[in-house]
Design goal:
The complex is a heterodimer. By secondary structure, chain A is of the alpha+beta class. Chain A folds into three domains: about 20-90, 2-Layer Sandwich (Dna Ligase, domain 1); about 95-220, 2-Layer Sandwich (D-amino Acid Aminotransferase, Chain A, domain 1); about 225-395, Rossmann fold, CATH 3.40.50. Chain A is built from eleven helices and 16 strands. The longest helix of chain A has 25 residues, at about 315-340. Chain A is elongated and about 80 Å long. Chain B is globular. By secondary structure, chain B is an alpha/beta fold. Chain B is about 35% helix and about 20% strand. Chain B has two domains: about 10-120, NAD(P)-binding Rossmann-like Domain (Rossmann fold, 3-Layer(aba) Sandwich), CATH 3.40.50.720; about 140-295, Rossmann fold (3-Layer(aba) Sandwich). Chain B contains ten helices and 14 strands. In chain B, strands 3-4-2-1-5-6-7 form a seven-stranded mixed beta sheet, sandwiched between helices. A seven-stranded mixed beta sheet of chain B has the order 9-8-11-10-12-13-14, sandwiched between helices. Classes of the chains: A alpha+beta, B alpha/beta. The interface between A and B is large, with 74 and 73 residues.
């Protein structure tokens, strides 16, 4: 998960990467208690880049201007995202702006150091000038100096820039990060360097072993991701088909088939996790049950296409989860009718139609179970997709 | 490479939930599991398999081990693999999902220096139908034959194995290199193995969006593979990564110097088409293309 700039700078400060004095602003009135002398820069704290180009960064000279600017920034969405807080920071006169990053490169399966003498908001020119150094073996500072030389730096800048890169790398390793980026690294006329903006991405799989990072994220108002949560991903607001699958590849292939058959996926859910070390039939059944409930809460979903290739759980046990989901839905609708017996025509609680495609052991028993709930079991994936798409087009909801 | 029923196999994490579930299934398929390791359980026996506290203790008692299959918790996986390498084991299959990528990097540095094969992490492993199961593939979808199947995913591989089996096309081997961003063995490595394998006549490569494994596979096939290859790419309609405006991620993908579109389904399909590799639009099209490449009639046969 990504950290906000002010969280990244907290980590930079601890690591000894030079950053300017700054203060977090939760409300415009907080600027009355500002401890940084003017002029200052106010920066929108959002996860998306490019805020500077759309007015998310403003320079101010006094408290009155600062409060007005802060109100403007709080009300300015950056690509649809409103900031929850701003960062007030001392103004810095940079002579030049560099780009620096440490990231994991999946092609070479190694960390890479990246550097460009053309940093700043124009990402394309940074890319054009980008230099990279692959950290093949255990890191040693010469990798950072190699980057500085490749960037064309000379004299004292070699040491000062490579010292920043070295600390970025330490941060990267110490906290199991996916990315540490400084853009821009300001370079003053006297050759002093300063991290003016920073981006840090924590690795979701590694986060659990970094309590310090978790507390930084939660202390500063973030919400650490819960990687174990099963939550449907919304795709197309015009779509009517919800997909419940196990495994990322199968989920993608099923979505592609729906698209190919002329359907639109409203949302999808991968209950997967067959490679989790603690995977068990109970866990998978629980995730399916939870997933079906969440999926049917999406109003736009008319059809839920369940496509499971059952490895750990026999099909009849999967079918039992589906049947009990249907029973719960029906029972709830009946309960509602009873409560409002004075009303003659009660709108029955609607639920999406189900198309069930299961393969694995005990599929005959699963078929019999599903039949008792007026559901058929489809074994062929293409047929299941065609059925889901045509049901979605007919726009029928089961009552 | 040794993937035969003679392969002497160790299970690390044999008492962990996944390990204890799949060990009997592998054994039933004919895999020669000689020992298990789970610290604290030394001296116990599971399905006739002796358990040890350390890999080296297992080796002292049962003798040489060819392959280890690792089912331990994600944060313990690096240590388990390093222990196996230290004991001289040179084939490691990492089933566990959720291993931090920096742990994988550390492991790969060690593996490269010792010429150790790492499959995974987050992989269902390897199946040689009718011979040996080194992992968690559901064997009922596979049947012996001449199609080599390589992929990055689990259930989608089973789906395609099942389609092939239903079409009367058996498989010589099913391998998944793992679904994580950073994995050990690569598509080119397995293409080379299958190209040299006498039992394989045609290769099916199942790719998906993200990274550049498919692009590098396409280049490698054009240069070095003589057998016919059929490709499929999942994720044509998948949502774009949520890292919009994330300069570091974009730039990091660029250093492979293959272009800016790396990672999209389009880029992968184009790479295969440029290398004159037939690409299936959906899984059920794969058997038809396989038959075409083998000049077999494309009529769909009844169940095996």
């Amino acid at each position: 998960m990504d950290l906000l700039e002010y969280q990244a700078k907290e980590l930079f400060r601890d690591m000894g990467i030079p950053v300017l004095p700054s203060q977090r602003i939760d409300y415009p009135k907080d600027l009355k208690g500002l401890n940084i002398p003017y002029p200052v820069v106010l920066k929108s704290q959002v996860y998306i880049g490019g805020r500077g180009r759309v007015g998310g960064v403003r320079f101010v000279e006094n408290t009155i201007d600062a409060i007005a600017a802060a109100q403007t920034i709080f009300n300015l969405p950056i690509m649809g995202e409103y900031p929850k807080m701003l960062l007030a920071e001392a103004k810095y006169d940079a002579d030049r702006e560099f780009y620096l990053a440490v990231a994991l490169n999946r092609s070479v399966c190694r960390p890479v150091l990246l550097g460009s003498c053309q940093g700043g908001i124009d990402v394309q020119s940074a890319i054009d000038q980008m230099q990279h150094v692959v950290v093949e073996q255990e890191f040693s500072p010469y990798y950072a100096r190699r980057l500085a030389i490749k960037m064309g730096l000379q004299g004292t800048l070699i040491e000062s820039v490579s010292a920043v890169v070295e600390k970025m790398y330490q941060l990267f390793i110490q906290h199991d990060l996916d990315l540490v980026e400084i853009n821009p690294l300001g370079v003053s006329a006297t050759g002093e360097v300063m991290a003016l903006d920073g981006k840090v991405s924590a690795n979701d799989d590694a986060l659990a072993r970094h309590p310090q990072l978790i507390s930084l994220i939660s202390k500063l108002g973030g919400d650490p991701a819960q990687p174990n949560d099963v939550v449907p991903v919304v795709m197309d607001l015009d779509g009517h088909i919800g997909i419940v699958c196990n495994g990322a590849g199968l989920t993608m292939a099923t979505m592609d088939l729906v698209g190919h058959a002329g359907g639109k996926t409203a949302s999808f859910l991968n209950i997967g996790g067959e490679n989790r070390w603690d995977s068990s039939p109970e866990l998978l059944k629980l995730r399916l049950e939870h997933g079906l409930d969440l999926m049917s809460q999406h109003k736009s979903v008319r059809v839920i296409l369940i496509n499971l290739i059952s490895n750990l759980v026999p099909c009849d046990e999967v079918a039992a989860v589906i049947v009990s989901y249907l029973e719960r839905k029906t029972a709830r609708a009946a309960g509602l009718t009873n409560l409002r017996s004075d009303v003659v025509f009660v709108q029955p609680k609607r639920r999406p139609s189900l198309v069930v495609r299961l393969v694995g052991s005990q599929s005959d028993r699963a078929r019999t179970q599903l039949e008792t709930a007026q559901l058929s079991l489809v074994e062929n994936l293409d047929e299941a997709v065609t059925e889901a798409v045509s049901l979605a087009k007919s726009g029928r909801l089961e009552s | 490479m040794n993937f035969t029923p003679n392969n002497r196999v160790l299970i690390q994490g044999i008492v962990d939930p996944l390990g204890s579930t799949y060990t009997p299934l592998m054994q039933a398929y004919g895999t020669n599991i000689v020992a298990g390791v789970s610290p604290g359980y030394g001296g116990k026996v599971f399905h006739g398999i002796p358990i040890f506290d350390l890999v080296e203790m297992a080796q002292m008692v049962v003798g040489e081990i060819d392959t280890t299959i690792i089912f331990v918790q994600p944060f313990a996986a690096l240590d388990a693999a390093l222990e196996a390498i230290a004991a001289g084991i040179r084939q490691i299959i990492l089933i566990t999902e959720g291993m931090p990528p920096q742990d994988v990097v550390r492991l790969l540095r060690k593996a490269e220096a010792t010429e150790t094969l790492i499959v995974g992490p987050n992989s269902p492993g390897i199946i040689v139908p009718g011979q040996v199961l080194l992992g968690i593939h559901p064997s009922e979808f596979y049947t012996p034959g001449s199609v080599g199947l390589i992929s990055r995913s689990g259930t989608l591989t089973y789906e395609i194995a099942r389609e092939l089996t239903l079409a009367g096309l058996g498989q010589s081997m099913g391998v998944c290199i793992g679904g994580d961003a950073i994995v050990g063995s690569s598509f080119p490595q397995w293409l080379e193995i299958l190209d040299e394998d006498d039992n394989t006549e045609v290769i099916v490569l199942v790719g998906e969006i993200g990274g550049d494994s498919e692009e590098s596979a396409a280049h490698y096939i054009a240069e070095a593979i003589d057998k016919p290859v059929i490709a499929y790419v999942a994720g044509r309609t998948a949502p774009k990564g949520r890292r919009m405006g994330h300069a570091g991620a974009i730039i990091a993908s660029q250093i492979s110097e293959l272009g800016t579109e790396i990672g999209t389904a389009n880029s992968k399909v184009t790479a295969f088409e440029r290398a004159k590799i037939p690409v299936a639009n959906y899984p059920s099209q794969i058997p038809t293309l396989v038959k075409k490449s083998l000049r077999l009639p494309s009529r769909r046969q009844s169940s095996p």
